[in-house]
Each structure stands twice: as C-alpha cells, then as structure tokens.
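Recall the central idea of this unit: under ordinary conditions, the amino acid sequence of a chain determines the structure it adopts. In this exercise we apply that idea directly, starting from the sequence alone.
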Amino acid sequence: MVKDWLLGINFRYKGHTEIMKNNFLICGAIGWCWEVMYTGLHSLTKKDFDHKLMGNTSLFMFPIYGSAFLIKPVAKVIRHKPLWFRGTVYTGLTYLMEYLSGCFLQKHQICPWDYSKARLNFKGVIRLDYAPGWFILGLLYEHLLLGSKE
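Accordingly, the structure predicted from this sequence is:
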C-alpha cells in the first residue's frame, strides 16, 4: 500500500503499466519539443544571431524528460495547493533530476550540456536562470499527467 502511494501506482489495476509507459513517452516527447523550441528561441539572444532559429537536443534527453512521469504522485498530493507552490516544487524536482542525470552523464563524458560558462550555474549541470522555464514545464506536465485516465 505504501509502495502504491509512493509511485502513484495501483498495481492491482491491469492497465497501469501501459499508462506509465504512455506517460513516459508523452513526457519525453513534450520535453524534447520544449528543448528544441527553447534552444531555437535562445538563439535570439546571441550576438551572432542566426535567423534560422535552429533548436537542438540529444537522444539522452528523451529518458531524462520522460522521467517526469514520476511527478504524478507528487502532483496528486499537492494539486490543491497554490500555483506558485506547485510550480516551485516541480522546479526543485526538475533541478534535482537535472543535477543527478547531469553528474552521471558528466562522469561518463557524454553530458550533452555544459553550463560551466554561464553566470548562474551549479557545477556546470544546472542553470538557475532556467527556473522560469522549469516552472512552466512542470505545470504543463502536471496538467498532462493528472488529465490522463486511470
């Protein structure tokens, strides 16, 4: 019963594994699209502005973004809290995941991002100035995950 609550999973329901897989795929795809859009728009801020607005991502990012399906049990618990509170919680969880996955990928020399030259970075794997984006993306994931049928 505790395991069910922690994972937000009712293991007695046959189709739950399928819902989890679908949520993983949806979160991964949304995250990829988010990153491509964000990196494309970020090119507007560069001195050598490229009018093509090219965005990019890495295959490694799909499972990282896909793991956002794990916020569902948290979202269920805090869904009646104020928007600012929920967004802040999701931002914190995103930073935790970004830090853990970034350190793991750095250790294996395959990390697709390096924020070490950014002003507001932590160990080159987290940028604090990305908080507004993570806030919005977390709330988008909440909306998608709590809207799914169980």
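The mean pLDDT is 88.
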